């Protein structure tokens, strides 16, 4: 009997430690979920792997081009119809990874220059547009506060990723081209704050 008791005690300690670890993770996950549910409006940015851990001190540059043409479907209350639009956009962005509180973080900045031409019918009259302008730049801070330690590239090579939980704040600054007398604008003339 004396040999069984210590083993039984160790098993209980092991179960207690596992339960305590799971309970801590559960409380953390519940806190994050409640923080997300309390806000009034929700949105999702569909950028794959945006919270993946990356080594600190990395720099990324993005250059891109997009072309779109065709009919635009305005909202039902808009006084325009038969909208045809051609859009050309050049996109540029920069990102830098760093440590914030010992965890992996990233800041990225993006802006694009848009040229568009098209036509629509407004109050029975055909109107046309042909102009270019810069969009409002966006700045985003991403912080992986759980499961993503800040690692150098050498340390990162031998690290195995598990569950990562993070958050981000994106701010869009209204300095893009905007003219209140125009129906189409590259800028939006408003601040936008997005928290994920």
UniProtKB/TrEMBL annotation:
It holds the Pfam family Phenol_MetA_deg. The keyword Signal applies. It comes from the Bacteria. InterPro entries: FApF. Keywords: Signal. Residues 1-43 form the signal peptide. This is Orphan protein.
């Amino acid at each position: 009997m004396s040999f069984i008791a210590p083993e039984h005690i160790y098993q209980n300690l092991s179960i207690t430690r596992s339960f305590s670890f799971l309970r801590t993770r559960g409380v953390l996950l519940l806190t994050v979920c409640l923080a997300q549910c309390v806000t009034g409006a929700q949105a999702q940015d569909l950028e794959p792997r945006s919270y993946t851990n990356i080594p600190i001190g990395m720099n990324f540059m993005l250059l891109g081009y997009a072309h779109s043409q065709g009919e635009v479907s305005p909202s039902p209350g808009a006084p325009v119809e038969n909208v045809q639009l051609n859009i050309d956009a050049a996109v540029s962005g920069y990102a830098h990874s760093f440590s914030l509180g010992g965890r992996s973080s990233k800041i990225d900045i993006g802006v694009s220059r848009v040229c568009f031409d098209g036509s629509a019918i407004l109050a029975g009259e055909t109107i046309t547009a042909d102009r270019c302008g810069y969009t409002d730049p966006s700045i985003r801070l991403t912080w992986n506060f759980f499961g993503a330690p800040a690692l150098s590239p050498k340390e990162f090579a031998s690290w195995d990723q598990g569950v990562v939980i993070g958050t981000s704040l994106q701010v869009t600054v209204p300095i893009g081209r905007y003219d209140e007398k125009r129906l189409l604008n590259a800028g939006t003339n408003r601040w936008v704050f997005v928290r994920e």
